[in-house]
Structures are given as C-alpha cells and as structure tokens.
Amino acid sequence: MLTRVEKSCPRNGPICLNFGAPRGLLPGTNIEYQSITMKLPNLRSILSIFAILALSCTHAFGSTRDENLKAKVVGEEKATLTYAPEVPPPITRKNATKVVIHLEVKETEMRLADGVKYTFWTFGGKVPGKFIRIREGDLVEFHLDNHPNNKMPHNIDLHAVIGPGGGAASSLTAPGHSSVFSFKSLNPGLYVYHCATAPVAMHVANGMYGLILVEPKEGLPKVDHEYYVMQGEFYTKGPNGQQGLQPFSMNKALAEKPDYVVFNGSVGALNGDQALSAKTGETVRLFVGNGGPNLSSSFHVIGQIFDNVWPEGNSSTILHNVQTTTIPAGGAAMVEFKSNVPGTYILVDHSLTRAFNRGALAQLKVTGDENKLVYSGKISDEVYLPEGAGIRVTEQIQRLIPPAQNKGERVKQGEAVFKTNCAACHQPTGVGVPNAFPPLAKSDFLNRDKIRVIKTVTGGLQGKVIVNGQEFNGVMPAWNLTDEEIASVITYVYSSWGNSGKDVTAQEVKTHRVKPGSNSAGG
Amino acid sequence: MRLRPLLLLCLLIGRPTWAASELVAIPSGAYVPFLLQSKPNSAQDQFQKTPVKVDSFSIDKNLVTNEDYLKFVKSNPEWKKSKVKRVFADERYLQNWSSDLKLAGPEDRKRPVTDVSWFAARAYCESRDMNLPTTDQWEFAFFDNGRNQEAVKEKVLAWYGQPTARHLSKVGAEGKNEFGVYDLSSIVWEWTLDFNSSLPGSGLSCGGGSVGTLDSSDYAAFMRYSFRSSLKANYTTGNLGFRCVKEKGAP
Fold first, then answer.
1. Do B204 and A165 touch (CB under 8 A)?
2. Rounded average pLDDT over B22-37
3. Which helix (H) or strand (E) holds A319?
4. Domain B3-247 classification at class level
5. What is the complex's ipTM, to 2 decimals?
6. In chain B, what are the domain boundaries?
C-alpha cells in the first residue's frame, strides 16, 4: 500500500498534504483518498505516511528554468497541432527535443451565432487557435505564416516565451510572408498565445488567441479525457442577434461592452452534437484559456466541483474542491474532475448575463449509469405551506396594475411581463438558446395549442419537448403570476416574432390554469 | 465649388498620354503625425504633439492601375516578371499577371496594380519624373485638413470587416476626399517612400504601442503604421498598391 502511494505520488506538496480530503483522486492515480485512509491502522502510521509523503513531494512538477536551459536537445520532430476542443496526445518522450511548429494566420468569414457572420482573424483557420503541446526544455523552431489573401500584418506573442514581446518583436509578418524564430521552453505550464500587432486589442478581439502547453518532464497526471476550451468576447456593430455579416465595433471595444461572450469562437460551438463527452466514472481535464481581450472569466461547470485546479495554468500549486475559478484575460487554468453522475453539465462564465444573454455556455454530456447515492434526482414535489401563511400563498396576489381591457392592452402589458420573467432564458427576441431554451419565435409548439401554453406557464414543464424540430430537455418553473399577467404575456408572445396572433384572456387562464399541487402540464 | 480651380490645375499638370497620371494639387499645410515625437532631452516616454509642415505637392488622383504599370514594363523590360531580380521583388511579384506582358483579363486594366515591391513602385514613379509620397505627404493627403475623419475611420474599419475580395475594385470606386484624391482607403494599402521609418522597435508591435501615438483609439491609423512596419522593400502583397507624387517646383 505504502509503496504504491509513494510510487504514484506526483512529487507535489499540496496534493499530498491534502491527502485526507474527503473526495477525489490523487492526480495520476486511481486511488481514492477515502479507500486509503480506511485501511490505515492507527494514528502513528498515518503520521509516518504523511511524513514520507511530505518528504517525497516537496517540490512542484517540472524543472527549474536553469535546468531547462541546460537540458540537452536530442532529435527533431514536427509538432502535432489540434483544433479545439481536441488536445494533442500527452508527450511520452523522456528528453528535450527540437520541435518545428508551423502556424498559419488566416482571415476568414465564419459563423459567430445563428445567422450572424463575422470576419475572424485566426491562428490556423478557427477560433481559438490550434493547441500547441511541447515539453519543457524543448527547443522550438516557430514558423508564422501569413496567408497571401490576408489584409493585415500579424505576429505572435507566446506567453511561454521569454524575450521581447514573447516572440512578437521577431515575428511581424506581412501578408504572403513567413517569419521564423526559435525559443527554448524554460517554464512548464499552460500559456496563452495571441497576436500582438497594433491595434492589439482589435487583433485579439477578432479571435487571434490560443493555448500552448509546456508539459513538465513527468507529464501531467493521467486522465480519461482532455479538452480545450477558450473564452473570448466579440464586439459587433449590430446588437446581439442582428443577422448578417457584422463588422467589428471599435467603439464597443473601447467601452468594453461586448455583444458576444463565447467559448471556442461562436455561440453554441460546444452544444448539441458538438458537446464535450465523458462516461460516468471517468476523469476529465479541461485546458481553459481566456483570450479576452478585456473580460476576466468566472469559470464554472454547473453541477460539478473541480477536484483539482491548477490556477493560472501553473505547475506547482494545485487547489482542491473549487467551485468557480477566475481566468484572467490572457490567462489560463487546468481544471479536473470526475464525472460521477450522468447528465448534461453546462460550462459557463458565472458572470451570468454573459452566459444567458451573450453566449458563454458550453455543454459536457456525461453518459452512463445513475448513481442515486451521489445524486437522487427529484424524489417528490409537494405543495409547501409555511406555518401561519395559510391558504393565501396559493391565492393569486392582487397586483396594482389595472387589468387589460382588450388585446392591444394585453400585448402592451405582456411585453413588460415578458421582459421581467421570460427574456433571460427565451431571449428578448424570443429566439431562445440552442440546446438549452426553446425558441418562442415562430414556435410550432406555441402556435399549435394555446391551452397547453396556459398549462405550461402556470404549471411549469419538465422533460423532453420538440420545438421546431429541435429537441429540448430542460426545466421551466411554474410562474406565480396573476391570470391577467399570464393572459397578457401569452398574448404578447402570440403577437410577436411571426407567431399566430392568438388572443388569450384572463378568463381562459383561470379556466385552464394548473392548480398548485396538481400534476404539471409536461409531467 | 472651391475644388474647381484645383481640378483645372490637375488637368494642366496631367500628362495627356497617361490617363491615370491626372494629378491633384495638395496645398501646403501642417498636421500632427499619428506617431508622436519624443521630447528632446526627455525621458523615453515623454512625447509631444509636434505639427509637421508639409510643402505643397501634387499627387496622382488615382492609384496606379495594371494598365499603367503594363506600359511601364513594356518600356522597362528589366521589370518583367521573368527578369526582375529577387533582391528587388520577391517571388510573388505581379503574380496575378498571366505572363510578362499580359494581364489575367481585360477587367484587370482599371484595377490597381498590386504585388509590386517598393523598388518597382519607385522605379515606376521615377520613370514619370515623380516619386513615391513620403509617409507625411500620404498621411497629409489622407488627413484631408481634418475633414470627415470619423466617417473615414468607420470606412477603413468596415473594410477590415470584410474578407479580402476575390477581385479588387476598379480605381475610383471608393470616391474622393475633399482634396479630390480617390480611393485613399478601402481598396488597397499604399507604399510610401519611407515606409520603414516606424520599425517594430518603436513599440508599435506590443500592447504598449498606444504610448506615443496621437490617438490610441484610432485603430485605423494603427493598422496603417503596423502594415508599413511589416514590410521590406522587396516585399509584394496582394493588397498593396501605390501612387506617385511630384514636388512643388519639380519639372
């Protein structure tokens, strides 16, 4: 037992000292903390193990800068680069080598959101740029190729490079030209690279960023999945959702008011069929970067706790049991967790209007057997009557707004109700969010049956629904709104965005509303 | 109305045999260059807004077209694609021409010539007893006495928002400024005589590049200066053209 722990110890102080933490894996092992401590015979043994671990784990992953400077370079290879969310395979060689990297800059028109296009400036043709994986001590020969059709000169600043501009001072490249420079990787860690040509904020705002991993000589602890996710914001001339090719807005960039905050270059890039995936019981490592150019990310995975976070992409201090980790613009982090429970987990910037209104949502789908011990799922749903409040709670509360007298007034009042209650998820223009919140605009679900809509709003809806051919599997709560408010908001929605124009009265809502405690409309 | 005398002057100066050599007179004046000058005898990061005086000059109304440049190559065979020395023009030189003396198609005649090096552009201008504009001359013509600057910036930024056109517009397509010079933005970049006077070492290539500029929010200007900084005299690119100037008093 003891030998096994020592052997697999990643020589990292903090990890070993957190040995007794109640959950998670020792990085690089399949040994659960719990199972080890259970078998320890007595306090003295525990203390002695701690002492041995502390001794054998007192320094971080990787070598010092001086050691890497002296590391002998043997052989030569061409780097394998990957598009997000893929990550090149771990490096298995035991020596530093010469690595040749070719990265091509392309200015190209691509999808930013549904119906919205943008001229992206890219490292490798997509946003984020290709993932680069090298080993500490490697000597890198870097070729920056600027495609002849490009309009702009470009260069590259790799945060893994020590020297003027991180390479930028040596790589300013005109369209149709190629620059070469070399560097020795001296510090292990996960680093951002980006274009640094003036106006640098615009080059970055157009998508010119990516990640380079300098692996420590031991390699990183083994996990089942590694994925590449990078946040960035976009400043478009038209507001969020405005269709067509959108030019960059210099004024919005200067004001730091982006229209889009996205993972991997577009709204929904990691949703639906493109979602990240894992099976229950597997470990997942996310290499998360933030290109910015301006906003820091409060990176969070809904329904997960990070067993390990390597803050700032560093290789020496590992945090455990983290809910949300800050990833600054021009920074990166590695986060790791085990997927115990099946379901869809949403990656967000927990600065939440970015997630709900500007696109900072991605999905990780975990498949496999349920684990009811870890998470039961919903066991029951009953009426809750606080003591003393009595029946009044379930009665409709009188509102101060006079009831609408006709359809026109209902549409007007309904708009206010919609903005307050519905727009956050279904979006101000009713377009919804792909794979998360169904559209209300031109919605076949909506237009087919207004009684079902009344039941949905008053009783909530949970489970699978098909709207305009797309499947959604989420939860909408029951809304505690008056008959008038519900009649108004449904009439407003019916009168907007190409819907059927149906009118819904308060009397109809009263007749068909789902009474609290009865089964909800969707079951 | 006030432009009419200028246009008349252009017609007088222009050579009738070269349609595109119609010139526009730019009056003398002063402007503050985008890259500020360091204060003399001061710490490195102290800059001053020193106006630069620009003498009057004449400038091509239009960008030099493929047709113009073809005439030049015909009478100066050392500038043929097959003859030009690599030290004077890189491998891409005139790469869209189908051969030494043949354009890819008749519609290219009125499009600006691109994929020409600084050496080639300069030789062309010298063959007309002219020269490339200095950066000050070009920027002064572009500055247009400060007229419509916001609209021009918007236009330049919008140009970058579009992918590179498969075919460039014909000269004249983007309109003229108040001086009467056409297409100073939105078709191609333009060579200047001293294009490399702002080298990467000046700080333009880093995030700190905003220090020492007239207006750090003028992204369009940053792009022009960055582009010039990325060039060498034998480079050619698909979106870089030129026009020529004549100094006041020159023959």
1. no
2. 89
3. strand A319-322
4. alpha beta
5. 0.75
6. 3-247
